[in-house]
Recover the amino acids of this structure.
């Protein structure tokens, strides 16, 4: 089969068109899908660049301090333990002069190079594994795949059916492929992490600040707009809101750039959720402790990566189908590109540029491309 993959982690020009063996017949919960469209997200560009660090493992870098013999794991500081020597490299409180550990675990579990990227996708079911009982050949579906399996930038893909749903009837393949990752991320962040659920806080009157509200995940609509590149605290206070601001959702890097602002404008007992990894979280000296505020991370890949609650993503996408078909949720696809090597490269360039609004998708139907000319 034809595919578009990264040959070596790094620049956009490292994306190449290649031929790979077609996936075998699906087993277990898997579906064999003929890919019709995919969308590009920041995670695609980070994985391609070799900088994706949301799944850190043990550091292979040299010890940051002198080592000492230990018969049991260190309980007083974070330690890196060698099973063969039972030595632990005690790491003292981090100073500015100390390098941070190298984060490698994602790439140790990712498919080998050349790696086929692509997390969002849509297409036709060609075959279903024996446990994928809710799907049949010919079904039109959409999904967000596992971060540690070959992706959707290929003619064919094996996908766990528990993370798949039937495509909304009122959306094209390209529109459908633009929805899963951003929707699931926002759903998990707002409902599961921040706890914003109907009936949980009956009668609650409160506001939420969404940082980067024009991005793929953050594009939800708003009653007020502020510029997150300027003084957020000043702008929020000038709004003179008549409800307390109890929730903050950060979808723009760096998270640390908004921690102090969030603490300043939060109401006591508020919650903040971020989807953007950061090496520093400067909460000391802010009002986080004084206001008893809560900070929580959201990562869509946690469930498939660790194999927990793996049915949840499919359920979320099924619910989204109804809301899309009823018009309660809108698709914010901004551009459709041909599903070719040059199209994938252009999509990566668009995502890497700051200020992109909405989503970009790749489709085998764009510009009358067709399946025969796609993926090359």
């Amino acid at each position: 089969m034809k595919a578009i993959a990264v040959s070596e982690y790094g620049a956009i020009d490292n994306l190449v068109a290649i031929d790979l063996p077609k996936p075998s017949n699906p087993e277990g919960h898997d579906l064999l899908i003929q890919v019709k469209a995919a969308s590009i997200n920041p995670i695609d560009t980070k994985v391609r660049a070799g900088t994706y660090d949301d799944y850190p493992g043990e550091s292979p870098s040299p010890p940051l301090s002198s080592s000492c013999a230990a018969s049991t794991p260190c309980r007083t500081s974070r330690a890196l333990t060698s099973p063969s020597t039972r030595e632990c490299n005690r790491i003292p409180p981090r100073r500015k002069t100390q390098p941070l550990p190298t984060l490698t675990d994602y790439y140790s579990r990712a498919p080998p190079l050349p790696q086929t990227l692509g997390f969002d996708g849509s297409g036709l079911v060609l075959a279903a594994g024996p446990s994928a009982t809710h799907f049949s050949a010919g079904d039109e579906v959409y999904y967000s795949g596992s971060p540690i399996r070959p992706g959707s930038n290929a003619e064919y893909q094996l996908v766990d059916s528990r993370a798949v749903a039937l495509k909304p009837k009122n959306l094209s393949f390209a529109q459908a492929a633009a929805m899963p990752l951003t929707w699931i991320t926002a759903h998990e962040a707002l409902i599961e992490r921040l706890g914003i659920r109907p009936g949980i806080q009956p009668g609650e009157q409160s506001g939420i600040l969404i940082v980067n509200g024009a991005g793929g995940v953050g594009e939800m609509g708003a009653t007020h707009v502020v510029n997150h590149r300027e003084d957020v605290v000043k702008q929020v206070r000038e709004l003179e809101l008549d409800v307390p601001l109890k929730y903050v959702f950060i979808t723009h890097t760096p998270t640390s750039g908004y921690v102090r602002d969030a603490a300043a404008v939060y109401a006591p007992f508020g919650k903040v959720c971020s989807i953007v990894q950061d090496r520093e979280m400067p909460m000391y000296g802010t009002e986080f402790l004084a206001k008893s505020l809560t900070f929580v991370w959201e990562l869509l890949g946690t469930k498939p990566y660790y194999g927990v609650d793996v049915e949840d993503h499919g359920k979320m996408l099924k619910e989204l189908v109804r809301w899309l078909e009823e018009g309660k949720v809108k698709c914010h696809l901004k551009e459709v590109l041909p599903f070719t090597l040059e199209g994938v490269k252009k999509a990566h360039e668009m995502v890497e540029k700051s200020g992109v609004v909405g989503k970009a998708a790749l489709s085998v139907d764009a510009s009358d491309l067709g399946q025969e000319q796609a993926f090359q």
